[in-house]
Amino acid sequence: MNSKAQIHENRIKIYYSKDGYSLRISTDVAIKNKNEFSKKEGLLKPSQNDVENKKIQENNRVILSFREKVDNIINEYKKIYAEKPSVEYVKTQFKNSKNSLQQISNKQLGLLHWYKEFYKVKSKNAEIKPQSLKDYISTQNALIDFEKDTNKTYLITDINETFLNDFKIFLASPREEGKEYLTKGGLNNNTARKRFDCLRTYFRYLTFKVKLIEPNEEILKFKSADKYQIDFVSLTMDELQSLKDLKINEERLKKVRDIFLFGALTALRYSDIIRLDKVDFNFNAKEIRKTSEKTDDEFVIPILPTTAQIAKKMNYNFNHFSIQKFNDYLKELCEKYNLFQDEIKYTVRHLKHKEAFVYKRYELISSHTARRTFITNAIDKDMTIAEIKRITGHKKYDTLLKYINLSAKNNNSKMSRLNLK
After folding, report:
1. Which residue, among 22, 7, 1, has the nearest Cα to 69 in the 3D structure?
2. pTM score, two decimals?
C-alpha cells in the first residue's frame, strides 16, 4: 500500500507523502492507549473480550476502507503517468469522493451496529407501541445469537436471500447446548414472522432512510414462514362459575382467580386490567372507561354484577403481579386445585414441519385465555360480531375470528336449527 495508518491525537489517520509534503486524513477511529494499535499492521490489535473484539473488527474495516480509497487514487494516477501523484492531487480527489467514501465506510460497519441505530430512531418515536419495541429488541437479540452461533460478524452487504434463509432456520432450530443465548430457539412460524416483520422494517430503514443498500424486492418481500391458526383454549360459562365458587385457601391465588374472572367477563387485556383505578368505574352509567395500553383507543366496558363485586373486593387495585408471575400462579392454582386436567392435542409449526404435543388444558391457560374466553362465550350467547368488536376493540373481523373457539357440541346444537321439519 502507498498510504499508511498512524496515530495522531488519539485518532487513527491515513498518511501519504510526496516531495516533502504530507497528507493526513482522519478516519474518526479513536483509541485510548497507543498499545491498542499495531504499527506493523496499521490496524487495531485484537482483544480477548468478544464484545470489544467485534467493535475492533468494525473499526479495522473502516481503517482499511480509507486506506483502500487513498491507494486507489494513487494507483490510478500511476497507471497513467508512471509516477506517484502530488499530495494536493490526492487531497483534491479524496475530497471529491468523500461522500462515496462515507458510504463505503458505513457499509463496512456491522449489521448489528446499524440495527442499534435503527432501534434508537424507533424508540424515540412516541407513536411506537411498547409491544412493538419489545419485538424489535427480541429481533436484535436473535441477531446477536445468530452471530454467536455462526461465529461471524455480518455486514449490511451480507443481506441476501442466503442470509435470510439461514436466519429463518436458526430461529426455528433448538439452541446448541454449551453456549449462552439471549433468545429461545424452536420458534413457531407465527413468532418467526414477527422477527422478520421487524427485519423488513429495518431493511426499509437501510434502503430508504439512510440509503446504505439498494432497493431489493426479494429481500423486502422475503417469505419467512407460513402463518397458521393457533390452537386456542378457552373456558365455558359453567367452568367460570365453578372457578368463582371454588374455595381457595391462599390469598395470593384468590387474587389470581379474581383477576382472571374479571378478564373473562370484560375482555380486557391484562395490561389494561392492572392499570385500572376507581375513577375508571362509572357505576351510574354502569361502565368502565379507559384508554387501552396497546392501541391508545378508548374502551367502554359494561359493568356486570360479578365484575363490580370483584372490583370492590380488590379495592379497585388489580396491579399485584407481573404478567409472568400471574401466568405462573394461574397454572399453580389449576394444578393445586385439580382444574382443567383434560388432555388436548396442541400443534406447533416450525417452518414446514408440524409437531403435535399433548398437554393438560391448564398448561396452556394464561392471562390472555380470559380474553379468548369472553369472545368464545359471547359468540355462544349469540352476541353479534359488531357488538363484540365494540367491547374488545378489534378493528378487523379476521383478527377477531382467530379467538373463537366453539366446541363441537355447540356447533351441533346450532346446526340443528337448520334442520327441516
Report:
1. 1
2. 0.54
Amino acid at 277: D
- Strands in 287-291's sheet, in edge-to-edge order, are 281-282, 287-291, 298-302
397 membership: H or E segment, kind and range: helix 397-401
> What's the number of CA atoms in the CB half-sphere (13 Å) around residue 276?
31
Where do runs of H (alpha helix) occur along 40-182? 50-81, 87-96, 98-108, 111-123, 130-150, 161-172
Name 251's Cβ contacts closer than 8 Å, sequence gap at least 6: none
Whole-angstrom Cα distance, residue 300 to residue 320? 23
HSE-up (13 A, CA, CB side) for residue 37: 19
Copy the grid coordinates of residue 344.
Answer: 388436548
The C-alpha atoms of residue 338 and residue 373 are separated, in whole angstroms, by 19
pLDDT value at 383 more than 50: yes
d(CA 299, CA 272): 10
The three-class DSSP label of residue 311 is helix
Cell reading at 386? 359488531
Please answer whether residues 44 and 32 qualify as being in contact, where contact means their C-beta atoms are separated by less than 8 angstroms.
no
Secondary-structure percent of the chain, ordered helix, strand, coil, rounded to 5: 55, 15, 35
Q: Are 202 and 159 in contact (CB under 8 A)?
A: no
Cell of 363: 398448561
Question: Could you read off the pLDDT of 81-95 as tens digits, one per residue?
Answer: 788 888 888 888 887
How far is 353 from 47, CA to CA, in rounded Å? 42
By the 10 Å C-beta count (0-12 exposed, 13-18 middle, 19+ buried), 392 is classed as buried
Q: Does residue 202 contact residue 222 with C-beta atoms inside 8 Å?
A: no
| Cα separations in angstroms, 178 against 143, 151, 167, 173 | 18, 14, 20, 15
Report the range of poorest mean pLDDT among 130-144, 259-273, 276-290, 373-387. 373-387
The residue assigned the cell 379507559 is: 290
370 — alpha (psi -120 to 50), left (phi > 0) or beta?
alpha
Rg of the chain over all Cα atoms, to the nearest angstrom: 30
- The backbone torsions φ and ψ at residue 349, rounded to the nearest 5 degrees and listed phi first, read -110, 125
